[in-house]
Design brief:
The complex is a heterotrimer of chains A (155), B (298) and C (260).
Chain A lengths: L1 H28 L11 E7 L10 E4 L2 E12 L4 E8 L11 E6 L6 E6 L12 E2 L1 E3 L4 H16 L1
Parallel strand pairs in A: 1-7, 2-6, 5-8
Antiparallel strand pairs in A: 1-4, 2-3, 3-4, 5-6
Chain B lengths: L10 H5 L14 H4 E12 L2 E12 L3 E5 L6 H8 L7 E6 L2 E2 L5 H8 L2 E4 L11 H12 L4 H14 L15 H12 L6 E5 L7 H17 L3 E6 L2 H7 L2 E6 L2 E6 L1 H6 L3 H8 L15 H6 L5
Helix pairs in contact in B: 5-6, 5-7, 8-9
Chain C lengths: L3 H29 L1 H6 L1 H40 L6 H39 L2 H7 L4 H39 L4 H11 L2 H29 L4 H31 L2
Helix pairs in contact in C: 1-6, 1-8, 3-4, 3-6, 4-6, 4-7, 4-8, 4-9, 6-8, 8-9
The chains are: A alpha/beta (155), B alpha/beta (298), C mainly alpha (260).
Subunit structure (chain C): The complex is composed of two ATP-binding proteins (MlaF), two transmembrane proteins (MlaE), two cytoplasmic solute-binding proteins (MlaB) and six periplasmic solute-binding proteins (MlaD).
Pfam families (chain C): MlaE
Protein name (chain C): Intermembrane phospholipid transport system permease protein MlaE
Chain lengths: 155, 298, 260
């Protein structure tokens, strides 16, 4: 039954290689450390325009990722975008007067939310809303504004 | 074709006075005596009717040969008896149980009491001879490895291939493969064993070995044997009872001596191997001259 | 006759439907027979060997080259937009979401699926399946079920190996040959790839492909006409139907997973 044993060893090696590959995909390729974010707490923020912000986009503070966008909804009464954020529970002292911006990574990159901490002693807790927001920079608008100001400056 | 005996004649009635065969004297009650009883069997495959009101009885302890020209559905008959196919009409009873009415579990229970020897042997090609014979034992029993080994070696000894136990099926000759398959078929000590064309393509020596083996097995372990064949000489040598079937019906039946004395032209043509007679050499078609002059199709 | 083509069309339509029905019957019988695998894990090991271990070489080598080509082509396009740093993301996303499961399934259909069909078809042609049945052993449970579950188990692991080797191949070409920054290669990838959204969805895809490819292969073998021509036709059909089913299902699954 040496042959049976060889087969078992090879199958074991194959399964091990498969699981190592899966582990590699989970850890190295998609960085599992931030995936257990389901337990994080929720904050909402209202924006006049979120540009092309999508669910799962990163939420950063000082350039470091601290959470993800969970959902982007539309409020049909206020005509505003309501963005739900999931924040890492370890980051538990975000001041009340924090500023939320929709930024673009690079000129054409994906959009993300950057939080700019304020100085208030009160902290945001689960379910709170971030009051100060800054809408996305829309490239077309920026170009339009630039040309307009250029034109008016010349004239 | 002119059958000497109409298909309506009940074969069992005539079989009563058959006295040939070793177990001939033990036939007291007609009901218990019959292990497989087929009544009014009709089976169609597509447009073709293979059996058309077939009646057939197989007696316990006897070797029954079912003979007929190629294409008369002899193998189909075995498949019907083992429940691999279901009849369109009629009854097939094995030991009083209607095979075609059983559910899968009951059918599998019944099959443990049957052994079948396929024309090709049907050995599992990725197992060696020993494991092939051990297969049904491992599947259906909880024997200890040492007991299993003894049993398998005994079965292989019975077919004279104990020395070939380590060979693979691809290393066996046709006759040896068939003997291994026979050892496997008798591994679970069945009550009935079905042979599908056991003599086809065998050289005279292995043919002789098989003939005596079938007879010995039948008599030594009180088996019931059904043998489907078109090899007239071998089948008449070992059979206690012979059925000749053609066109879906029993054309003639009886002991080998009775069949030998049969005067019907069809029976004589088949038994004596005449090329033309009631069964024509030519497959039915238009006359040769008309066919040759026809330039149209093919 | 004028109506002959219509009748032929109807007959082949009915044939297709009947085969479809037989295929689903077989799948149901195999799923119901799952207990056999639990009772005899040794049967499963042999089949994981047949599908998994024997396909590992072709899957690994293909993954390596696909990853390397992706990096070359991707770099060419991304560099024009000054986004060469996103190369890692592009390679990983293409592999984990699409190419890993799909190409692996196609390779397995060609390598292991055709072998399964030929094996089962030959067992049928040589009456081995009928022989098992007459030994009161159900060939579906004894022969087909372990093969099905062996294929289903091996497929996601093979796809993971394909993707992982592919990412490494992409890294080798992108960072080693084309000079993309190694840090950016990994960090861009890690920032945008998600375990549930990408890796788990990829695994789900390859599980589905595993079921479909092995099922088609087993059914074609089990349903073939038991002649040499029949077995060879069935083997071809396994590869063709298997590939079509994988590509078609990939579209449906992608639409369901990433379309919303």
């Amino acid at each position: 039954m040496a042959k049976q044993r060889n087969i078992e060893i090879l199958v074991g090696a194959f399964m091990a290689a498969g699981f190592v590959a899966l582990f590699f995909l989970a850890m190295q390729v998609s960085n599992l450390s931030l995936a257990g974010m389901d337990e994080g707490y929720r904050l909402t923020a209202r924006f006049a325009n979120v540009g092309s912000l999508k669910a799962r986009a990163p939420v950063t503070m000082a350039g470091v990722r601290i959470g993800r966008v969970e959902a982007v909804d539309f409020d049909p009464r206020a005509f505003e975008a309501v963005v739900t954020l999931r924040i890492d529970p370890a980051v538990d002292s975000i001041p009340m007067d924090t500023f939320a911006n929709v930024f673009t990574s690079g000129l054409l990159g994906e959009q993300y939310i950057a939080l700019d901490p304020g100085g208030s002693p009160d902290v945001l807790v689960d379910g709170d809303e971030i009051m100060h927001t800054q809408s996305a920079m829309i490239l077309e608008q920026m170009i339009g504004q630039f040309l307009f100001s250029k034109a008016s400056g010349d004239g | 074709m002119m059958p000497s005996q109409g298909p309506g004649d009940a074969p069992g009635v005539r079989g009563e006075d058959v006295s040939a065969g070793p177990s001939g004297g033990a036939r007291a009650s007609a009901t218990d005596d019959v292990l497989v009883r087929i009544r009014d069997l009709t089976f169609r495959r597509g447009e073709r009717t293979i059996f058309d009101g077939l009646d057939l009885d197989i007696r316990r302890g006897a070797v029954t040969a079912v003979m007929g020209p190629s294409g008369t559905g002899k193998t189909t008959l075995l498949k019907l008896i083992t429940g691999q196919l279901r009849p369109d009409a009629g009854r097939i009873e094995v030991d009083g149980v209607a095979v075609h009415e059983l559910d899968k579990a009951a059918l599998y229970r019944l099959r443990r009491r049957m052994g079948m020897l396929f024309q090709s042997g049907a050995l599992l090609t990725d197992l060696n001879v020993f494991d092939n014979v051990a297969y049904p034992l491992r599947e259906h029993t909880d024997l200890s490895p040492s007991l299993l080994r003894k049993l398998v070696l005994l079965k292989l000894e019975a077919v004279g291939l104990r020395g070939a136990r380590a060979l693979r099926p691809s290393e066996l000759s046709g006759g040896m493969a068939r003997r291994v398959a026979l050892a496997r078929a008798i591994a679970l000590d069945p009550e009935i064993i079905l042979y599908d064309e056991p003599f086809t393509g065998q050289d005279p020596i292995s043919m002789g070995a098989l003939v005596s083996l079938i007879r010995q097995l039948n008599d030594a372990s009180n088996l019931t044997s059904v043998l489907v064949s078109h090899d007239v000489a071998e089948a008449t040598r070992i059979a206690d009872h012979i059925y000749l079937i053609s066109q879906g019906r029993v054309v003639a039946q009886g002991s080998p001596t009775e069949i030998a004395a049969e005067r019907s032209t069809w029976v004589r043509q088949f038994m004596d191997g005449q090329p033309d007679g009631p069964v024509h050499f030519h497959y039915p078609g238009p006359a040769l001259a008309a066919d040759l002059l026809n330039r149209g199709g093919r | 006759m004028l109506l002959d083509p219509l009748a032929r069309l109807g007959r082949s339509g009915l044939d297709v439907l009947a085969r479809f029905g037989r295929g689903h019957q077989l799948l149901l019988a195999m799923v119901l027979g799952v207990g056999e695998v639990l009772r005899r894990p040794r049967l499963l090991i042999a089949q994981v060997y047949n599908v998994g271990v024997l396909s590992m070489l072709i899957v690994g080598v293909s993954g390596l080259f696909v990853g390397m080509v992706l990096a070359l082509q991707g770099h060419y396009v991304l560099a024009r937009f000054g986004a060469a740093e996103s190369l890692g993301l592009m390679v990983a996303a293409s592999l984990v979401r699409e190419l890993g499961p799909v190409v692996t399934a196609l390779l397995v259909a060609g390598r292991a699926g055709s072998a399964l069909t030929a094996e089962i078809g030959l067992m049928k042609a040589t009456e081995q399946l009928a022989g098992l049945e007459l030994m009161a052993v159900d060939p579906v449970r004894r022969i087909l079920v372990p093969r099905l579950f062996g294929g289903v188990l091996a497929m996601p692991l093979l796809a993971a190996i394909f993707s992982a080797v592919g990412v490494l191949g992409g890294y080798f070409v992108g960072v080693g040959l084309l000079g993309v920054d190694a840090g950016a290669f990994w960090s861009q990838m890690q920032a945008a790839m998600d375990v549930r959204e990408d890796v788990v969805n990829g695994v789900i895809k390859s599980l589905v492909f595993g079921v479909v490819v092995t099922w088609i292969a087993l059914f074609q073998g089990y349903d073939c006409s038991p002649t040499s021509a029949g077995v060879s036709r069935a083997t071809t059909r396994t590869v063709v139907h298997g590939a079509l089913a994988v590509l078609g299902l990939d579209f449906v699954l992608t639409a369901l997973m990433f379309g919303g």
